[in-house]
Amino acid sequence: QVQLQESGPGVVRPSETLSLTCTVSGASISVHYWNWIRQSPEKGLESIGFISYDGSTKYNPSLKSRVTISVDRSKNQLSLRMTSVTAADTAVYYCARGGLVIDDAFDVWGQGTMVTVSS
Amino acid sequence: DIQMTQSPSSLSASLGDSVTINCRASQSISTHLHWYQQSPGKAPRLLIQSVSNLQNGVPSRFSGSGSGTEFTLTISDLQPEDFATYYCQQSYTTPMYSFGQGTRLEI
């Protein structure tokens, strides 16, 4: 059974950097596409970006300048780093598994982690 | 950017009813359309991939259809666990995987 578990600080100060980790069990991150998605009442569900099985990344153009997605294959984890956060980045952040091809759906999701940007 | 528009935004129904949720894309997305169910406090759950392919474990009362810009999710014989929010999502343009705004199905 594939499981994803997000972790990270619940509160981040404005202008600082948000760092989240997603631990994957039951599957290898060297297979499939792996995604970060966030959800807020204001913007709904929003794709942040993904990292592929070969380590290539693609980001939402609106976030591209502030976001980095990476993997630690030794720990079977993926990470999200978002710089210069503002209140608009307050959301529930999910990691999700994509398919074997780039346009597959997200078939496994983590439970999500709430991040609040506040001083 | 491709905009995904769902209708209605909310829907009231009763146990045993059949309902249809619509999703319109601002441009053709072929069959790159997926449906998710989200219960309160939970992550979205993939129901249907590529318009009409039911995920393993999803009851057959869920079905999807459409192509191009117009898509529908139909739920027949509504059960208590079906009352949730449903989202469509396109994967035609990567990495801009846009979602609809959601349809809340309530009793």
Question: What does this molecule look like?
Answer:
- The complex is a heterodimer of chains A (119) and B (107).
- Chain A contains no helices and 11 strands.
- Chain A has 119 residues and is mostly beta strands.
- In chain A, strands 2, 4, 5, 6, 9, 10 and 11 form a 7-stranded mixed sheet that branches. In chain A, strands 1-3-8-7 form a 4-stranded antiparallel sheet, with no helix packed on it.
- Chain A starts with a strand and ends with a strand.
- The model of chain A has no long low-confidence stretch (mean pLDDT 95).
- With 107 residues, chain B is mainly β.
- Helices cover 0% and strands 46% of the residues of chain B.
- Chain B has no helices and 10 strands.
- Chain B has strands at residues 4-7, 10-12, 19-25, 33-38, 45-49, 53-54, 62-67, 70-75, 85-90, 103-106.
- Chain B is globular and about 35 Å long.
- In chain B, 36% of the residues are buried.
- The model of chain B has no long low-confidence stretch (mean pLDDT 96).
- The chains are: A mainly beta (119), B mainly beta (107).
- Chain A binds chain B through residues 35, 37, 44-47, 49-50, 58-61, 94, 96, 102-107, 109-112, and chain B through 32, 34, 36, 42-46, 49-50, 55, 87, 89, 91-92, 94-102.
* Beginning-to-end CA distance, first to last residue of chain B: 34 Å
Low-confidence stretches of chain B: none
How is the main sheet of chain A built?
7 strands, mixed
Order of helices and strands of chain B: EEEEEEEEEE
User: Share of helix among residues of chain A?
Assistant: under 10%
User: Which descriptor suits the 3D outline of chain B?
Assistant: globular
Strand content of chain B: over 45%
Oligomer: heterodimer
Principal-axes shape call of chain A: globular
Count of discrete alpha- or pi-helical segments spanning 4 or more residues of chain A:
0
State the helix count of chain B. Answer: 0
**DSSP strand count of chain A:** 11
What helical percentage do the residues of chain B reach?
A: under 10%
> Strand-and-helix sequence of chain A, N→C?
EEEEEEEEEEE
Q: Give the spatial strand order of the biggest sheet of chain B.
A: 2-10-9-4-5-6
Question: Biggest β-sheet of chain B, characterized?
Answer: 6 strands, mixed
Biggest interface, CB < 8 A: A-B, 24 and 24 residues
